[in-house]
Amino acid sequence: MHNVELLNRIRTPWLATLSQSLASAEGVRASFYLQLERFFDLLSQSIETGDPAMLAPVLDEWAAARPESDLEKLETSLSPLLSQILLLTYDVVRDKLNPEHALALLGSILPIYAYSLQHTITQETQLHVNYVSADLENARISLERLDKSKSDFISVAAHELKTPLTLIEGYASMLREILPTDTEKPALFLKGINNGTRRLHEIIDDMIDVSMIDNDLLSLHYQPLWLNRLLSIIQAELAESISSREQNLEIRPFPGSEELTFGDAERLYQALKNVISNAIKYTPDGGIVVVDGRRLPGFVEITISDSGIGIDPEDQARIFEKFGRLGNISLHSSGKTKFKGGGPGLGLPIAKGIFEAHGGTIWVESAGHDEQNCPGSTFHILLPVRSEPPDDKTAKLYRSMTKMKTTQVEYYSHNSENK
Ligand code: ADP
After folding, report:
1. To 5 degrees, how large is the angle CA 388–CA 274–CA 345?
2. Which of 134, 165, 292, 360 is most exposed, with the fewest beta carbons within 10 Å of its own?
3. Which ligand 1 atom is the nearest neighbour of the CA of 278?
4. Centroid of ligand 1 to alpha carbon of 64 (angstroms)
5. What are the tens digits of pLDDT across the range 216-232?
6. DSSP secondary structure string for all residues of 188-225
7. Does pTM surpass 0.70?
8. Residue whose CA lies nearest to ligand 1 atom number 12
């Protein structure tokens, strides 16, 4: 007897048994019965044609109709269902057919079930992958939105802070003019106000810089420069901090440092100073900071090594993100070069933004964070050596960056006024 005929002989008990066993509630049973009928007919066509893929449409529909909760829990409900169908089919076949017929029918059904099971597992996995990818994409979009609001908040806050700060500075300077110069206390108070407003100015400028970098608005003014001269200026500027911390800042002459190159001297000075100030800040009193480097084809590499507290490998990428300061954030900022002085966590993102805008990069190497043994850190900076300002293509890129909204132009002009 043909296997299709054998299958048709078990149709009624098969449908009755499977709908009874698989659909628990009465209401669901009626619609499930129709689904099982369709499954059975396709199974029959599959045996007739010898094509195991005949069942694929109904399996795909079942896979797509699975509840969202299954996807959320990443559960595979369809492949267990298919295994149950196979077991129940085996029971019905054994019950309703003689052993010879049963063996013949199962022999033709099994390869179709094996194919269906594999197809279902692939489908379910694909659905899970799609679900997780959509979830990740949503998370990425909300993170992007959050980052944008953070960046917008920083620039608005910075500009709002700037106006009252300018007023305080103005009134403080008027007070300085009218107060008698020989009295000690007013002079001391005025010095305090002056230090406070200067530090606030630096923080606000950093906030504006970081928001310009975030919004691709940092435009560079290329001019000829020598790295060794920039480094000497920084050394002179930091001399007081270095001696108050009894540290040693050694700036070695290295191949490429005396070579003429093109870059934005003011911005490179700012970026290098941020990294060197950090080296001083995160190194205990009496420590050493060494600036060295080497010439590479097309680039110069500057290394800034310190004998400080070091940075754990898992934090080495985070410190270049804005507000990526490590440790206890409740400790307030206590100065630019005081040991572990803390700060708003903007120095390195700004330095990174400036080096990258030059076509360079920055990264750090450190064995880990250890305040007792001080393993130290080495910051590597790679900068292109240019014999002339960037070519037309790059200049065009910068020009396109200056096509900004009015408010953004305002940010830039405010900021450059204060440089
Ligand atoms: P901050 O204002 O906190 O100094 P930065 O962006 O300059 O912000 O640095 C981010 C964080 O990276 C710091 O809070 C500090 O934890 C870590 N860091 C930076 N430079 C060093 C260094 N040379 N040694 C150890 N840690 C460092």
Report:
1. 125
2. 134
3. 20
4. 50
5. 788 889 999 999 999 99
6. HHHHHHHHHHHHHHHHHHHHHHHHHHHTT------EEE
7. no
8. 319
